[in-house]
Automatic annotation (TrEMBL):
Family the entry assigns: Belongs to the UPF0473 family.
Cross-referenced HAMAP family: UPF0473
Organism listed in the record: Erysipelothrix inopinata
Highest taxon of source: Bacteria
PANTHER family per UniProt: UPF0473 PROTEIN CBO2561/CLC_2432, UPF0473 PROTEIN CBO2561_CLC_2432
UniProt-listed InterPro entries: UPF0473
Protein name per Swiss-Prot or TrEMBL: UPF0473 protein H9L01_09800
Pfam families: DUF1292
Coiled-coil portions: none
Amino acid sequence: MEENKSVDEKTIVVIDDDGSEKEMEILFTFNDDEYNKSYVLYVDPADETGEVFVSSYTEEGELNNVTEEKEWAMIEEVFNTFIIQAEEHVHDENCNHDHNH
């Protein structure tokens, strides 16, 4: 998945290797000062495996592959933080018993 056709706040349309357009659901975006890049993490809502895709993107909306191992490690750390915060948020919403958060 390399090219971004259009972006709105919750979905992104990518063109896959076969030239087919696919609408993906954006999990979140973030900027990194060390690499001076913006990143988008997204999933295919039709894919039940839950595979997460990651691309850096330009101001023009062009998606680029992440190729550096150190860059992947940084993205993985950000993603893990996102998962922990999402799980805590769900727990807080569903919590109906007393304990410290």
